[in-house]
Amino acid sequence: MRIARIDHGSDPRFAAERDGGGWVLLESLGIEAHTTAAVIAARSEIEAGVSSSSGDVVETPQFLRPIVAPTKVLAIGLNYLDHIRETKSKQPERPILFGKFPNSLNDPYGSVVMDKELTERGDYEVELAVVIGKKTRGVGEQDALDSVFGYTVANDVSAREWQKADGQFDRSKSFDTFCPIGPWITTADEVPDPQGLALKSWVNGELRQDSSTKEMLFGVAHLIHYLSRGMTLEPGDVLLTGTPHGVGFAMDPPRYLAPGDVVECEVERLGRLRNAVIGPQEA
Q: Considering the entire predicted model, what is its pTM?
């Protein structure tokens, strides 16, 4: 099943894809859900309503970010072996965790704002994003995937000079618009193995990243196990799992984003983001 959030005038609506095409508005099924956590709680009702072919259908929706009001947006650094090799970094002994604050969340086709007064080293990172489906604390690695509601695509946009200068990642990766995500959430039953997905990114049509989640140093199950040992993961929380080789700062010479660029990020079977880079005067 795919769950999306779509433009519906002044009040966006969640919707579920039906067999044969089109998206059923949850509100028309009698389901009031305005946050991702509320959608997760109503999963059984959604499945029943969509299978009955009832409800109002939107054939060609405009997709918005499907993540609303998460308690946490977590991300992992240096988690792909090919990215570790390209940056000549030391392989981490344990996951490197940082946060992307919710203000950075952006629509799957929304514009990414690059203000040269703030950064001239904007960069892209295609990532598999995990949406937590139930309250999780202290879960074993063997059971960790049971905590996943679904998966989606994210672009962990970064201001590289501040990532280095600040000595930590949070601010440099949390500028407004710096986390395009979507276009929808694909439920976990449709993705039996999150460690076997191809992922790619393009800038202005040029393929930049081309890898597989097989390259992850720490897989999804281990990350959920590791993180849940010290913090409670809540329904609707999001985990960005790292990026593969091909990022701009690691090229020789580096190739950073600038207004006028278009970045596309794709994860196999989960969809593709497409985001224009603009200056602040265009926002």
A: 0.97
